[in-house]
Amino acid sequence: MEWVKRKIRRVLDLFGRVKLVTVYAWICMISFAIFVGAWYFSNQIAGKSIRNEYEDYNEALFDQTVSDINRGIFDLVQLSYTIMSSESLNEFLTAKNFGERNSALSGVQYEFNRLKTIRNDIKAIVLYDNEGKMMANTGITIPSELYSTVNNGSSISFSGIYHIENNDYFQVIVPLYLVEKSVVKEKNGCCSLLVSLDFLEQRLPDVVRSGEQWCAIIDGDSQIILEKGDRPSYLPTKSQWFSMDEEADEASFIYIEKFDKAKWKILFSIPQNTVFRDINTIQRINLMTYLVTGMLIFVLFLGIYASFLRPVKRQIAFMNYYAINRKSRMKVLSDNEMGILAKNLNEMLDELDHLNDENIQASKKILEVEYQKKQSELLAYRNQINPHFLYNTFECIRGMALYYEVPDIAAISESLASFFTYNVRGKGYAQIRVICQHIEDYASIIGYRFMNQYQIVYHADEDAMECIFPKMVIQPLLENAIFHGLETIESDGIVQVEIKKKGQKLIILVADNGHGMDQATLDAMNTRLKEYDRTNLLPIEKHGIGMVNIYRRLRLFYGEDLAFSVESEIGVGTRIKICVPSEANIREDEYVSGIFN
């Protein structure tokens, strides 16, 4: 420890040899370097953070869009399976004559209406036979040229885009098979669902609809089914769209996903300049903030130089010149501390000149002797400040407060005087009656200090008032309860002290409704108490009077007759119970001075 102190003193001595202006210059340069470095790294971190967040947001948005479209396609496929298993449609297509077909028509109409009710974006349903001839339809009128596009494949298929009456649609073509006794035999036709592009458009995210980004759904022939936003200039020819990858352009974020069931592909392009625009805005704000802060710091350093360093340099120059011309005086330029110092310096020089004029040699010796004498007396008085002086000072403050009708200051001065007298006078123990008065004084001080936010409530049985108990035990417990228990809670806190005599035992309870301790902290405290009982060694306490010190003091007075327990719970508070003999035989030599006071 001494080695560390010597090193610290050596470093301080080295700094003490450096000129103040040099230290100031180094502080300015280091502050400037830290300031510029903080600005640079904050810009880099902010830019990287925004870019990462933007990429994560775009990926999540794209994944959600793909998921929504896949869910919609899955719904259409499930609906198609319902059509494939429809007995009404199979009966209609396998009818051998007009009468059978006419009787089955009502079932077909029912199926069509049911499908349109399930999905209101299905605008037309057309039923075809194996030869591609339209057998039944419902919904909007479909142009005849659309009939030839019906796929005669064996599985559910999705078409490209069709323009009908200024609206856009796509087809879902469902093959129909003859099913007998759960056995699929032969294909006997197909069903075409004409679906509005609203089905896809409502699943695109709002940011794409705003036009700042570009999103397109294309079919296997690279034909656009649906397009939103401004089409980027970097796109290749349409024939290459379906084979594009996510590395097509470095100036944009490109996301691509295929829909296997529909044989479609979604392209999602977001220009990176939208990210850099946000980053540049934040960097400009950051730069302006740092510039304003830098200007304020510059003004602060300038003020320090003008109000402190410059006057110090002037005083150094004056002292050097004063050695040549003792009649010179320093010019007072301001009314601040440095100006007052210059004024006092001039007054001192005037007084010295006056004394030198009377008797240079004799007066100089007398003044030196008197100066040394007064310095010694001042040091002696300073070292002789004793409790009696402080007590009289508190009483003087109280008297002045009463004279000037300031009862609050008078009351707290009286409490402080009584509190101080209790701690420094007398023996290390006192009657419970005196201790209660001390608790009341301490409660008054705490009330003034914390604006009555915390209350100390005590109760002592009358038959316990004459019992003897050590000083500086209850008050440290109260202090610990306030500063470690109540200061961490938002509501008003209460510390309760209860003193009672039960048989031959004196019982003292100190409880608060503060934050409390968790089980680990409580166990650690009890372990320290047990460790003291085992070794009689005190642990190192960082602040104030620790619980082990209080426990030690009680052990010195009562030995094995002491019962000491601590209970605590988070959110409930802490409760300390002390049980000692009520008729303790305390002698003068049992008090060890300096333990607490």
From TrEMBL:
One term under GO cellular component: membrane
Protein's recorded name: Histidine kinase
Keyword Transcription listed: no
Domain HAMP: 306-357
PROSITE patterns referenced in this protein's UniProt entry, alphabetically: HAMP (PS50885)
Keywords: Coiled coil, Kinase, Membrane, Phosphoprotein, Transferase, Transmembrane, Transmembrane helix
MF (Gene Ontology): phosphorelay sensor kinase activity
